[in-house]
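User: Fold both of these, please.

Assistant: Here is the first one.
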Amino acid sequence: MRIERKERADATILHADLDSFYASVEQRDNPALRGLPVIVGGGVVLAASYEAKAFGVRTPMPGREARALCPRAVVVRPRFEAYVEASNAVFDIFRDTSPIVEGISVDEAFLDVGGLARISGSPVEIATRLRARVAAEVGLPITVGIARTKFLAKVASAVGKPDGLLEVVAGTELDFLHPLPVRRLWGVGAITEAKLADAGISTVGDLSRFGEHGLCSLLGGGVGRHLYALSMARDPRRVETGRRRRSIGSQRALGRRPKSDADIEATLVAIVDRLGKRLRTAERVCRTVVLRLRFDDFGRATRSRSFLESTDRTDMIMAVARGLLDDAMPLIRDRGCTLIGLSLTNLDDHDSIQLTLPFEADHGAELDIAMDQLRDRFGRDAVTRAVLVGRHHGDDAPMLPD
């Protein structure tokens, strides 16, 4: 379902973003960590408190590099169940604030508060109450940006961090945007920023003055038009609610220690088992499996393969995932592997599957259901694959939704 409203002159789009989410949950739950530099994740930094960020620690920085920058940092293991619980509580507040909420990830969302003035007050008043409720009911700091467009609201929340509230008043968009560095624009990474710097472009204002034609010549037509539109505060997208996710995924940081082929395969098997259950719980099916790898030299590789027909069967997903891993194993042996991730994409509803006649007995789906039920009743480790016996695979980091 897509909900739209007519164009308004007011700044009525909120971007609410929890501050250093994982690290803030750890500091909330363990008062001894408050005020200290906290790093979540050992092999790769999954999150860092603002005290750690002050030393230059960033995600997804290798843990060794982060500890060199901040020797006093306290490194804690991730607790994803706690993060999911906190996220659900915050999103309940979002949905109680506005009927139009578009989740972006576990720790941020857009809210459209247009039309709520008579019952809830101005956007600033609404955002102020939202921040107070998140602090009082969930115990976490959150920053809110307010603007007429999603893009500017997100930029405002980034500028307003940490634990702040920043409104871009209607009519002042370019005054706010143009002094900012170009890296604030969606689509400007390190490579694009370097290209722009070589052309003498360091701020959003510089970029807008360079012109659309010049940007298209420098960066290509699509990127040039996109960045020029953002530099002029043009973003026609509406806040959407009820969107179905296009993919689900999970990843596991492996650290820089040597790993055997069996270690890596066991990690993949554990990820596939969990994703298969998540897929069936959501009553979805997938068409494509995507394997993502990060190497010791910080390089990355992606491999993907699609099914002829969509499926939610763990055995079929497992076979494809193992095939992708086999294809990539020469690279892993040569370059080492610090992270392995798997995504199931091209999702559809389960009832979209075209049924086939059972000419041959195949009980794979029944086996998946039985294993799901056993794990729901007796715990995740009640039944497991032989390759996972004696191994611990609880540190995988969920990927952000597309």
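And the second sequence with its predicted structure:
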Amino acid sequence: MRLKHLTAGLLALCATQAWADAQQSIRQSLDQLNFPLAVTTISETPVEGLYQIQLENGRVIYGSGDGKYLVQGALIAVNDGQPRNLTAEVEAKAIGEVINGIPTKDLVVFAPAQPKTHITVFTDVDCGYCRKLHEEIGELNELGIEVRYAAFPRAGTDSKTAEVMRSVWCAEDRQAAMTRAKQGKSVTRVTCENPVTGQYELGAQVGVQGTPAIFLANGTLVPGYKPAQALAQEAIANQ
């Protein structure tokens, strides 16, 4: 019995050392590449010799234990014909933490009296489907969905749209200014310290490629417009 316990302990020690060596090798490889994003954690995967590299923006890549190979893509677990996208599950959780960490004071929030859950929408005031979604803000609120807008001017932070969005964020009444902008009406030009550029950069980091980009409370991305009833059902189911 003592030999069995000793063997188990040695195996655990070897596994721990292998994991530590893999972390060091992977981090060295990323440093050599001047990788642009910080690594938050490196952990084992169900695949022997393959390690999960969690990035600060919530995204995941994979690396071999010797650090010589990096892999970007989805890791799918095949469970008796019932596939699970392990990468998507991990990324959604991490991205949800990033998105939900944006202070609400830096967002344009349309909140119901008794919210059931919330969505965070990276939006552009000139985007047609963003405007269509905004027309349903009242219905979403009635269904218990708090809508939090983050800025994502598609033409970039030096565009006229970005200038309008800065005025929205600097307005005394952000909700009214956002509604005017989404209706194609003029917004009084105002300047202040604002989060538009930071939110645009964050959106790019978490994979926003178009607007509206809707993140549910659990970090799941709903790309593009979805009618209020369907969106509310999905938001409540994925809190």
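The chain has two domains: 2-97, 107-237.
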